[in-house]
Amino acid sequence: MISGRCAACKYLRRRCASDCIFSPFFPSNNPQRFAIVHRIYGASNVAKFLHQLPLHLRPEAAESLFFEAKCRIEDPVYGCVGIISQLQHQLHVAETQLAKTRAEIAFLASNLQEAQPHDFAAQPIQGPNTIGFSQIGLSTPAHWFNS
Amino acid sequence: MISGRCAACKYLRRRCASDCIFSPFFPSNNPQRFAIVHRIYGASNVAKFLHQLPLHLRPEAAESLFFEAKCRIEDPVYGCVGIISQLQHQLHVAETQLAKTRAEIAFLASNLQEAQPHDFAAQPIQGPNTIGFSQIGLSTPAHWFNS
């Protein structure tokens, strides 16, 4: 059966109006995409979220809602927050690694300065710039790191 | 009025049964916590998500649902995904910084080896270990980095 209805209207077995809120973001050739957001938020909530936004922001919002819903289905305990914890852990590892490397550079530079005082006196060697990891200010509870 | 009902049952104006699914995670002294998850997922979806999990996993699930819902209210376009993009960007910066630093160490070590061949011949200086950023395998669409 050929149908001009979007995936959401097909799923909800209703007519797809020309100004359907779902139609631009849930095409009929990808029924799974709507099924996933519907399962997590419910159709009326998704419609409400999209309606609240100006037109140009809706595609990104639909995409991020789909991503979060998919994460929640794949990981019913942590959802997207599992990825956040994993990334925060990776950042912690990177920060530690950078601190270690900076210390290594300082050690090498001081050895080199002793060995070649004239060549390096005018070119002080600096460690890498500090990356402001702490600036991100995430409010994820600390215990998620330990789970 | 003193009431033994949890925040969810108060919000939904219903009796709070002794086996209420919400009661352990949405205490009456924090009505906002339930209001937030209700606004994003709806009460019946939250109940469904919790019911599907074994008892010991429900506290973490309630916490991550609350966190995600709060993120969606604070950032209706990107929600939690905004944090993921931000962290991924920070990781990219850190990876670049580490590569630069490793090159700097290699340069210093080779200069030092030339200057002090006998001291350093037996102690090869290595760059820091590579951090497996690519191992995280996130499926966030690449265009979120540019937004």
Automatic annotation (TrEMBL), chains A, B:
Query: Which domain of life does this protein belong to?
Result: Eukaryota
- Its gene? LOC111430896
Query: Which InterPro entries does the record associate with it?
Result: LOB (IPR004883)
Q: Family assignment?
A: Belongs to the LOB domain-containing protein family.
Q: Which organism is it from?
A: Cucurbita moschata (Winter crookneck squash)
Tell me the PANTHER family matching this sequence.
LOB DOMAIN-CONTAINING PROTEIN 23-RELATED, LOB DOMAIN-CONTAINING PROTEIN 4-RELATED
In what residue span(s) does the LOB domain sit? 4-105
Query: PROSITE patterns attached here?
Result: LOB
Q: Name one Pfam family in it.
A: LOB
UniProt name for this protein: LOB domain-containing protein 24-like
